[in-house]
Amino acid sequence: MSSIGDRIKYLRGKIVNKTQKDFGTCIGLKPNSVSDIERNKHNPTDQTIKVICQEFNINEEWLRFGNGEMFIKEDAISLDNYAKINNLTKLEKKLVIGFMNLSPEIREAVFSVLENTFSNDKQNAAPKETSAAAELSQAVKKTEEAYVKSRSKLVKKQKDNEKPANKKNLEELSDEE
Questions:
Q1: pLDDT at 163
Q2: Which residue from 23, 97, 131, 136 lies 20 to 30 Å from 116 (Cα-Cα)?
Q3: Is 38 exposed, middle or buried (0-12, 13-18, 19+ CB in 10 A)?
Q4: Whether the Cβ atoms of residue 59 and residue 53 lie closer than 8 Å to each other
């Protein structure tokens, strides 16, 4: 693959297995523009190259010049990419986001419950499930308490920021009655 057009054609057809129309939709181009790029009739813009690299996790150096590995090896993973790769439902993605928004202490408690529930120890399955339910209930209770506490602080802060009633405010209130 000596040209960028050849590499894009290979990526589209052999790696991501998309038609020119579907590939174009992913990167914001019309099918005829994808065709022109693949036939080396036109070079892709810098913006198109960046979109291809972001959308498909492609090494820009490989795409432009054929150097290095095709894919970027990331230390961190994007939840959107992970959800797309693993076909997560909206609910599953929402659960992951909700879990990550919990405090570290509550995440640890939930993780402990899940770890106990899904352990490979089949002999003690029933007691662990009962224990897991109790632990999960406790984790939910802690979450509720933390929520109530944070709401209480917010309400108190709002009350502290309110202006004290003065004569003018009291007159306006009595006029409204």
A1: 52
A2: 97
A3: buried
A4: yes
158 pLDDT band (50/70/90 cuts)?
Answer: low
5-10, Cβ contacts within 8 angstroms, sequence gap of 24 or more: 5/37, 5/38, 5/39, 5/40, 5/43, 6/38, 6/40, 7/62, 7/63, 7/66, 8/34, 8/37, 8/38, 8/44, 8/52, 8/63, 9/38
Residue 75's pLDDT band, with cuts at 50, 70 and 90, is: low
Ramachandran assignment for 71, one of left (phi > 0), alpha (psi -120 to 50 degrees), beta (any other): beta
Mean pLDDT of 28-38: 97
8 in Cβ contact with 63 (< 8 Å): yes
- The secondary element (H helix, E strand) that includes residue 154 is helix 125-161
Phi/psi at 58 (5° precision): -100, 140
Give SS3 for 172.
helix
Q: Is the pTM higher than 0.70? A: no
Place of tokens 């690299």: 53
- State the Cα–Cα distance between residues 53 and 70, nearest whole angstrom: 10
